[in-house]
Design goal:
Blueprint: E1 15-19, H1 23-29, E2 34-37, H2 41-48, E3 55-59, H3 62-71, E4 75-80, E5 92-95, H4 100-133, E6 137-142, E7 147-150, H5 152-158, H6 162-165, H7 179-190, E8 195-203, E9 209-220, E10 226-235, H8 237-263, H9 268-289, H10 297-321, E11 329-332, H11 333-343, H12 345-350, E12 354-358, E13 365-368, H13 372-385, E14 392-399, E15 403-409, H14 437-449, E16 453-458, E17 464-471
Parallel strand pairs: 1-2, 1-3, 3-4, 4-5, 12-14
Antiparallel strand pairs: 6-7, 6-10, 8-9, 9-10, 11-13, 14-15, 15-17, 16-17
Helix pairs in contact: 8-9, 9-10, 10-14, 11-13, 13-14
């Protein structure tokens, strides 16, 4: 096997198989290309089958070229004696005697054609991959509305296979009352306007309606003439449904607050929670609802989560305030902690926080109420929320003859000493502990009902450690 240098010719590189007794001469002429020799028809056919050549250059053997072209999609150039030759064949050729520049020009043009065809195939494949990897619907149609392509995103949203829809009119996807919208939009884009994020409804294969955020652009040919449209549709059905539910939810909460204010049935604490902790995130939700199609769903989800968490905590606190005694049973606090950690697994994964449980033995039994798990959930969730991402929360067990002490240590910013006396009060004065108040007030109330203690210390060199101590037996507390 012989090779010449592999470099540029006219800004291109090419690989050429030469079948000729004049190989050395041709190799020298084609020094700017990668060349390889075949000494027989069998060797030539074998090497072409490897699919690594851009062009085959054959001297005085039309029959071999016929065999190669019959089997393989490769560009062929013939060097022939002047004489009879079927010029209707799709071959490039040059007659002897030829000028070297003439042969180089033919080879250059042939390889340029190969490159252009390859680039076109790659571009089409690239665009096909983009279309098929998109979760959004991408549908192209001609100017009469006949569908010319239908990507996998469209298949997923609408339930049709591409072969079912290609050739059909795109208007079939629209309910009758929505079709006029599309006609207006097509008129506008033909007049040079753009259609971006317009809300429309489509019908899927099973007759279900989908809310779609649709953008439409004009397709043009190589001369700039309009030939069709491409529409990119994002399924926002869930977001629209959430928007409706949020509006209803806002209305219900406001009505509920009015009832509470009129009846004065709850304490000042609960009114404060409802007015400030709930109304603020609801205002954010209301503003976001108008622009939900503009990728505000994450903000909505966060605020709904805040509301749900606040209402849950307010309900728990209200119940605990009216309880004088709890019912106790023998429980393994190690198991209680494991269950609390499991319930917060998604929260810790989201921040990539490792939770380490340090125990001196397998179990730690005490007379406690099932409410104790709520206290640990509050402390552990706070530790996760206020710790930096990819850090560690440590839970440490200690015991003596009469009690069990459990510490939850984080690597957050910590709590200043002057704020520690107020940290477990709902109306605490601390700035660092803002947002913790209701949860820690719940912790304090639960621990008090267990005749135990709760306190916070500095976790050197950084963070805080919250401790809960409960008696092993309630009668001995």
């Amino acid at each position: 096997m012989e090779y010449s240098s592999y470099s540029n010719f006219g800004g291109m590189m090419g690989s050429i198989l030469i079948v000729s007794e004049n190989y050395e001469k041709l190799k020298k002429l084609l020094k700017d290309y990668r060349t390889e020799r075949a000494c027989s028809e069998e060797e030539a056919l074998s090497k072409v089958s490897s699919n690594k050549f851009d062009l085959v250059l054959i001297e005085d053997n039309v029959g071999l070229m016929d065999k190669i072209k019959e089997k393989y999609n490769v560009v062929g150039v013939l060097i022939l004696e002047d004489g009879d030759f079927d010029k209707s064949k799709d071959y490039y050729y040059v007659f002897k005697p030829y000028k070297e520049q003439q042969l180089l020009s033919i080879i250059h043009n042939s390889l340029n054609k190969v490159k252009l065809e390859r680039d076109l195939r790659n571009a089409k494949e690239f665009m096909r991959n983009i279309m098929d990897s998109s979760i959004d619907s991408i549908i192209t149609a001609d100017l009469q509305g006949k569908i010319t392509s239908f990507n996998k995103g469209a298949e997923s949203i609408l339930g049709y296979k591409a072969e079912e829809m290609i050739g059909k009119n795109v208007e079939e996807l629209y309910p009758p009352e929505e079709r006029e919208k599309r006609e207006r939009w097509i008129t506008r884009i033909l007049n040079g306007e753009s259609i971006r994020n317009k809300r429309v409804r489509w019908i899927d294969k099973h007759g279900n309606l989908h809310d779609i955020s649709l953008s439409i652009s004009l397709l043009r040919d190589g001369d700039g003439n309009p030939i069709g449209t491409v529409g990119i549709g994002k399924d926002i059905t869930k977001e629209v449904m959430a928007e409706r539910q949020l509006r209803e939810y806002i209305f219900q909460i406001r009505e509920y607050i009015k009832q509470v204010e009129r009846s004065n049935m709850f304490k000042e604490l609960l009114l404060d929670i409802l007015k400030h902790d709930i109304l603020n995130p609801l205002t954010v939700i209301k503003n976001v609802a108008h622009t939900i199609e503009k990728e505000k769903s994450e903000l909505i989800i966060r605020n709904v989560g805040k509301i749900e968490d606040i209402i849950k905590r307010a309900s728990i606190y209200s119940k605990l305030e009216s309880v004088e005694e709890l019912e106790f049973e023998q429980m393994d606090l190690a198991e209680v902690i494991e269950e609390a950690v499991d319930s917060l697994r998604n929260l810790s994964k989201e921040k990539e926080i490792e939770i380490e449980i340090v125990k001196g033995k397998k179990s730690y039994n005490a007379e406690v109420s099932p409410w104790i798990e709520e206290a640990f959930i509050n402390l552990i969730s706070n530790a996760i929320k206020y710790s930096p991402a990819k850090s560690k929360v440590k839970i440490i067990f200690e015991e003596d003859e009469m009690s069990i002490k459990i510490g939850v240590a984080d690597l957050g910013y910590g709590i200043p000493d002057e704020e520690k006396p107020y940290i477990f009060e709902r109306f605490g004065k601390g700035k660092k502990s803002k947002g913790m108040g209701l949860g820690l007030a719940i912790v304090k109330r639960i621990v008090e009902l267990h005749k135990g203690n709760v306190w916070v210390e500095t976790n050197k060199p950084r963070g805080s450690i919250f401790y809960i101590r409960v008696p092993k037996r309630q009668g001995e507390a």
